[in-house]
Amino acid sequence: MISIQLITVLSIAYFVILFGVAYYADWCREHGRSLIANAHVYSLSIAVYCTSWTFYGSVGRAATSGIDFLLIYLGPTLMAFSWWFLLRKMVRVSKEQNIVSIGDFISSRYGKSAFLGAIVTIFAVIGIMPYIALQLKAISQSFDLLTLPPEVFRQGGTHHFQAISQTIDTAFVVALLLGLFGVLFGARHLDASERHEGLVAAIALESIIKVIAFVAVGIFVTYGLFDGFGDIFSRFQETFPERAYLLQIGGENTSYARWFSLTFIAMMACMFLPRQFHIMVIENSSEEHVKSAMWRFPLYMFVINLFVIPIALGGLILSNGDTSQADYFVLNLPLTNNQEWLGVLAFLGGFSASAGMVMVSSVALATMILNQLAMPAILKFRLEVADFSILLINLKRFCILGVIFLGYLYYRIIGESYALVNIGLISFIAATQFAPSLIGGLYWRRATLKGAATGLILGFLIWFYTLLIPSFVRSGWLHSDILENGLFGLSYLRPLELFGLSGFDIWTHSLFWTLFFNVGAFLTLSLMSEPEKQVLEQVPKFVDTFKPRRAEPEKQRISKAPTIMEFVELMTKFIGEKQAHAAIAEYLGDREIDQRGSLSEYELPSLKRFTERTLAGSVGAAPARIIIENYLVTRGSKMEDVFDIFGSVNLSRTSSREQLGVLYESARVVASGAKLQRIMDDILDLMVQQFKLDLCVIRMHDPSTDNLVVHSQRGMSSEHLGRSERELTMETYIGQTFLSNEPVVVNDTDFMSKPISAQIIHREGIKSFAHAPITIEGEPIGVLSAFSKTIKGIFTDEFVEMFLSLAGQVGVAWRNNQQTIKLLVAAEQQKEMEIAKTIQLGLLPNSVPKLPDVHLGGICVPAKDVGGDYYDHMMSSAHQLDLVVADVSGHNVGAALLMAETRTYIRARAHKIPTAKQVMASLNEFFYADLSRAELFITMFYARYNANLKRLVYASAGHCKPILYRHATKSCERLDAEGLIFGILPQVEFEERHTYLYPGDLLLLFTDGIVEAENDLGEFFGEERLARLVCDSVSLSPQEMIDRILNQARLFTGTRHFKDDVSLVVMKAEAKN
Amino acid sequence: MRSPSPVRLKETWVLCFILGIIMLNYPFLEIFNKPVTLFGIPLLVLYLTFGWLFSIFVIFLFSRYLGSVSAESDNHSGDAE
Question: Do residue A77 and residue B52 have CB atoms under 8 angstroms apart?
């Protein structure tokens, strides 16, 4: 035996070293390094799986029931195959969601349900109780074993003799000590991320110690006390041939059913025991570490188990087959063989195994109790606490102690009646109950809260009934009646033969029924019920972890949103000031902050989520959700669904279809050809109806007053918003919209920067509004406005885009309308021109005067509707014919009017004036004023033919010289007379000449339109060509000659229309035959 | 070594996982569940010990392979070992 003092001092020294390592790891972390962020430490820390159950219990089980102890380690080895897929997914999800415990994980998956979190926590605490009891039992018994004389220990164990004192229970002291260590390692300060680097470092060190201690003992037994493996096996077979079953399967203790059950239980437990989940998932610092932990952890288990059978068999041989102390062969064999230091090492190894498990378990469970039970309760009862962070850390410390003392309680009740391994298996099956809802939740979308909760509750009730009740009975705490006759004497309710299922061992029986009800209820209810809304939100975060996800557009906004500082204050309350500030600094990092020092409207929900996530890291997902909700409710703010413009939910693909629908409808309105006013009214009606707006207005720019004038208004009637004109100024939002040609959106009228607008807006009770410029070819011509009295934040980016398109449609309608008006005006003018043309044509002579021996023909072809050419012939007396050809410069209406005036004057006055030159002079005098005012000119050729004398008297006002064909010489000559064109001088002297027309002679009067007819090459038709044409076609009648000249001219130009007015007059003296 | 697709990788591992479960259960274990010793050590103990070691080795190879896959996708070299 070894003195208590020595053991105590050694134990304490060992713990001081452990604590030093932990403290150093924490210190490193604070200084930006991480001791534990590597695969070695991660793998070693997972070895917290190997507790005193492994260290002492495996040997005990190998010695009593045989080889099936291995399954507890073979199971996890098989499970490690799945780690790259399953564990990595769990790690990824937990990191993304800031998950802090298995309870938090399951609760988060099912819509952050506080209820589910509470169930998982209660079951985890009850389920792990036996496991902690096991550790306490192992430490206290090994301590007693080490310090008491062997014979005393053997006689009665701990109940009769206590190593420390008669009155104080060793286990109690151990529980107290472990509790203290749990607090020191796991709850020194509150940590936002719930990671404990110090704890992990200490666990890793303990894992090294326990494997060294166990292997040392193993080597000592195998090679010190015996002569190697073969020696032990052969001596065992010689000594205890009747116990050969220990090394075979199929005996009473190791049926194949049990073999399978144990493998399965171990597979699940190594993942879903709260402490395993904590170490493997929460404390994981990189997914890469999973990769090497996959083989390192199984290898660790292999090494530590290598010597279990030799020690067990060796112990049996040396103790003559006595199995009462088989659990402590590891300690006893060195002690009884005077290897006390090896014994101390074994004790420290066992102590490490137990302490590590208790510390991690208590911290993990305390976190769960705090987050899933205490916080919801505190929040539910609205306890007013000034500083939550202090309350939280103290609660956590209390919970750690509480968990350990629950284990102690269980140990006091059950402790003596079960071997170590059997106590542990009860906890393993409890942990297995988490598997369906957790794995199902990771891979099955349809899994619902109802299914998960019911499955868990049923699983645990059956677990309690089939495992915990029998353990109470066996300890004598309950009457054995229930085992034999069942609950209420109903035989089919016997805990060990539930519903008459007999013939299986207690573990297989319990595993079957718990999973039957658990999985059954989980699947059935999930299939029968629809996933709840809040569950659906979480599904992609858990199921589609490895798929790239698109950032969903913000669908919610916060009314009366808190500021950034208010969020920080809220966080400070729960995680302390330093952590809160660090968190917000990290969040804000690269985000844009506007002038008021706040985030944009659509960043706020994201900040809210961040705050919730940060709090979740400290208090768990469900409480964090409740905290935020309560906080917003107290402030009077709430999350509002962003008004769904497109009447559908969630899918932006659907919304764009809706958007298309509205745009299509408005385009249809624009294209309908209705009146502009109707189109504008219809578009506004569409907006008011589709988007539940309260007022929509179209204002157009009036260039004459430079104001925006209301053209259409729909929705509520408002003198100020809808009717009145707006001046163009940057002082109003609408003015800014027009002037900057950019849409202006105010989603919350509580925040407005323009006082003039704010006054009107507030008077009308508007919550949000937007203006969009109406443009034609990029130039603003008006403003489309929309106002909402009910909803803030209606104008999402998506909606503003749509709003701009609608403004564009109004612009198109406006432009269409403008063009229609222009077309109408043009048509009107055209009609008038037609009238003018008819009238003007009517002004030309329509009959040919009858004169003997003279034939006449004439034509006027205006270049446009009306022209400035004029020709006429009239009988000024019985034997006297007057011929006129005139050309007013230009060929527009003005020219036509002057032409009409000329005709009137000539028709009215000419016959009274004796000579041609006097006619010309009086015309010039008469027209001078009008012409000079209109800046026009007139050229004219005036001829007077006396039929009796055959004499032609003529005068010209700068007109083209007419062509006279002499029949006698068969040649053309030109008639020329001096004279200035009309409109140059008020008084002009005109020269008058005369000639005689002989039979066969022909006179052609024309305007410059014919000689200046131009072809593509820029050549004029010319007087030469005209004269030749006259000579060639002199045999034709005057009208035929005119047609020929026109045809030839058209052939020459290549077009049907002349550029200038063309007038031709032909006078032919009849040839004498 | 040609790199199989992630799906094939996953399926291979599901297969290994199932094989592991089969080889550690009835009736497969019956093959070794005999009172025969090899070098004085019962056959079942030997089978479990070396079977265990073998599966750890398989996982080790798998994790090595995963390492090379992720290294490959890191530098896009395309040259596998």
Answer: yes
Give the count of domains, chain A.
4
A1052-1058: Cβ within 8 A, 24+ apart: A1052/A1013, A1052/A1015, A1052/A1021, A1052/A1025, A1053/A1013, A1053/A1014, A1053/A1015, A1053/A1021, A1054/A1015, A1054/A1016, A1057/A863, A1058/A861, A1058/A863, A1058/A1009, A1058/A1010, A1058/A1013
Phi first, then psi: give them for residue A1004, nearest 5 degrees.
-120, 115
Inspect the interface and report whether the beta carbons of A70 and B67 lie closer than 8 Å: no
* Helix A797-843 with A893-909: angle, nearest 10 deg: 20
Together in a domain, A564 and A508: no
The CA–CA distances, whole Å, from A627 to A478, A611, A913 equal: 43, 10, 114
User: Average pLDDT, whole number, for chain A?
Assistant: 82
* Structural domain includes residue A289: yes
**Angle at alpha carbon of residue A531, lines to A527 and A533, rounded to 5°:** 170
Residue A646 sits at the vertex; the CA angle it makes with A640 and A652, to the nearest 5 degrees, is: 85
How many CB pairs (< 8 A) connect A and B? 96
Model ipTM? 0.86
A455/A817: higher pLDDT: A455
**Mean pLDDT for the stretch of residues A871-897:** 85
Chain centroid to CA A589: 20
- Tokens representing A1031 are 């000579």
* Contact indicator for A39, A289 with CB cutoff of 8 Å: yes
On whether both A891 and A945 belong to a single domain, the answer is: yes
Q: pLDDT tier at A302 (50, 70, 90 boundaries)?
A: very high
Cβ contact, residue pair A248, B21, below 8 Å: no
Span B1-13, pLDDT tens digits: 445 566 677 788 8
CB atoms within 10 A of CB A961: 15
Residues A352 and A497 in one domain: yes
Question: Tokens 């055209």 — which residue?
Answer: A830
pLDDT tops 50 at residue A72: yes
Q: Which amino acid is at A130?
A: P
Residues of B in contact with A298 (CB under 8 A): 52, 55-56, 59
CA B72 to chain A, closest CA, distance in angstroms equals: 15
> Residue A602 belongs to what domain range?
559-634
Q: What is the pLDDT of residues A900-916, one digit of tens each?
A: 888 888 888 888 888 88
Q: A295 touching B, CB under 8 A?
A: yes
pLDDT higher than 60, residue A417: yes
Is residue A541 situated within a structural domain? no
The verdict on A719 and A867 lying in the same domain is: no
For position A771, which CATH number holds? 3.30.450.40
Residues of B with a Cβ under 8 Å from any A Cβ are 10, 13, 16-17, 20-21, 24-26, 29, 33, 35, 37, 39-42, 44-45, 48-49, 52-53, 55-57, 59-60, 62-63, 66-67, 70
The pLDDT value given to residue A597:
54
Residue A613 domain flag: yes
Residues of B in contact with A80 (CB under 8 A): 59
Contact yes or no for A791/A802 (Cβ under 8 A) = no
Residues from chain A that touch B45, judged by Cβ atoms under 8 A, are 67, 233, 247, 309
Q: At what angle do helices A564-575 and A577-588 cross, to 10 degrees?
A: 140
